[in-house]
Specification:
By secondary structure, this protein is α+β, with helices and mostly antiparallel strands. It folds into 2 domains: about 10-165, no CATH class; about 170-370, Nucleotide cyclase, GGDEF domain (Alpha-Beta Plaits, 2-Layer Sandwich), CATH 3.30.70.1230. The protein contains 14 helices and 8 strands. It has helices at about 10-45, 55-85, 90-120, 125-135, 140-165, 170-175, 195-205, 205-225, 245-250, 255-265, 270-275, 310-320, 320-325, 330-335; strands spanning about 185-195, 230-235, 240-245, 280-295, 300-305, 325-330, 345-355, 360-370. Strands 1, 2, 3, 4, 5, 6, 7 and 8 form an 8-stranded mixed sheet that branches. A hairpin with a 2-residue loop joins strand 2 (about 230-235) and strand 3 (about 240-245). It is elongated. The two termini are about 30 Å apart. This is Guanylate cyclase domain-containing protein. InterPro entries: A/G_cyclase, Adenylyl/Guanylyl_Cyclase_3/4, Nucleotide_cyclase. One of its GO terms (molecular function) is adenylate cyclase activity. Pfam families: Guanylate_cyc. Keywords: Membrane, Transmembrane, Transmembrane helix.
């Protein structure tokens, strides 16, 4: 197994901290529900004896679930999720099982130390306590909890991966059937396209170019997730990202996404050059407006957006090369996006003619202080 330690920014830490808190709360809640279910089952069947100490058992369970929540939420789950993205499934699964087993043994050992020290009335470092712990790992309660929590960990990973696939908040909406019938929403859209993609594809040929795109879309994923964006679709060398208005405008998330993507690619620039001879330069276009959204398809169901705002955002992005900028937005959107990321300023470009549009549109671009480019995500 290889471990790579990354220096996280404030925005990244906030994202992972929020997710860790939710995992911690969920796992502690599940653990206590399981504890009280087992307790009342034993109580109802009159299996408990006078030797049973409820406080002792509850505190031992609390130690285990709090440690599981902290280790799982902060370290293990994030590491496991990275393995699932980085490695083929059999290798990732093996690493997950090994990491889970080590964590389960450490956490159970801590809980058993407390339980048996209280049971025997001696220090946790007493030899008698350590003698009791060995057999504990062969008891039914440990084996049952080991496999039950393995299922909980796997389900947590699946939820995180599916949530990333649909975008933050979309998966719950999908499960609740929110988009079963078409409805109108106001959204922000960003079209991101790799520059000179056709020339690069001709030089790299099919398989290598496919891996080039795969690396690009994988590398920029954290920038999208951490700015609360939702990937609508991948079209060749283009990715379409959308935000609900509140999420996109908050803290300049929609604009921040572009600069976060650019920073990630700049950090990995040499790796791309070594592997492909190129690194992905890209341009983006923004617009917002009303769209119809709903589920489409019978065999393969998808959530689809329909509206002129998508065509307009695509046309805006297409003007980036002509205007020699990496980022363009409609003035309508820019007027709403009052809060901008730190160090970013707006530059009005005047009125331009969009391909396929009868009316001209006022456009703006953004510029960031280059000294902040390497320090802020």
């Amino acid at each position: 197994m290889s471990f790579k330690f990354t220096r996280y920014t404030g925005r990244q830490l906030k994202f992972y901290a929020r997710r860790a808190i939710w995992i911690f709360i969920s796992w502690v809640t599940i653990s206590n529900i399981m504890f009280f279910y087992d307790y009342y089952t034993l109580y109802a069947n009159k299996v408990l004896t006078s030797a049973y100490d409820f406080k002792q058992a509850f505190v031992a369970n609390l130690i285990v679930c709090v440690m599981a929540g902290l280790i799982g939420g902060i370290i293990t789950v994030n590491l496991m999720e990275q393995w699932l993205r980085k490695y083929v499934f059999p290798r990732a699964l093996l690493q997950i099982i090994v990491a889970y087993t080590v964590a389960a043994l450490v956490i159970s050992f801590a809980g058993a130390l407390y339980y048996y020290s209280e049971e025997l009335g001696v220090s946790i470092l007493n030899y008698e306590v350590l003698e009791q712990i060995g057999p504990f790992f062969t008891e039914w309660i440990f084996i049952k909890n080991f496999f039950l929590w393995l299922i909980i960990v796997v389900v947590t990973l699946i939820i995180l991966m599916v949530n990333d696939k649909y975008g933050p908040g979309v998966f719950p909406d999908y499960l609740m059937g929110r988009y079963f019938r078409p409805k109108q929403e106001r959204r922000i859209f960003m079209f991101a396209d790799i520059k000179n993609a056709t020339s690069i594809a001709e030089i790299l040929e099919e398989e290598k170019y496919f891996n080039f795109l795969k690396d690009f879309f994988r590398d920029i994923a954290p920038a999208i997730v951490q700015t609360r964006g939702e990937v609508y679709q991948y079209v060749g060398d283009e990715v379409v990202i959308s935000w609900k208005m509140k999420q996109g405008l908050k803290s300049g998330n929609a604009i921040q996404c572009y600069y976060s993507m650019r920073k990630i690619i700049n950090q990995k620039k040499q790796r791309y050059i070594d592997r492909y001879g190129f690194y992905p330069k890209f341009k983006v276009g923004y617009h917002y407006g009303n769209v119809m959204v709903g589920e489409i398809g019978q065999i393969k169901r998808e959530i689809v957006f329909s509206g002129d705002v998508l065509n307009t955002a695509s046309r805006i992005q297409a003007l980036c090369n002509e205007l020699e900028v990496g980022i363009l937005a409609s003035k309508e959107f820019a007027d709403l996006q009052i809060k901008l990321p730190s160090g970013v300023k707006r530059i009005d470009l005047g009125t331009e003619k969009l391909r396929g549009k009868a009316d001209e549109m006022k456009l703006v671009t953004y510029q960031r202080n280059t000294k902040r480019e390497g320090t802020t995500l």
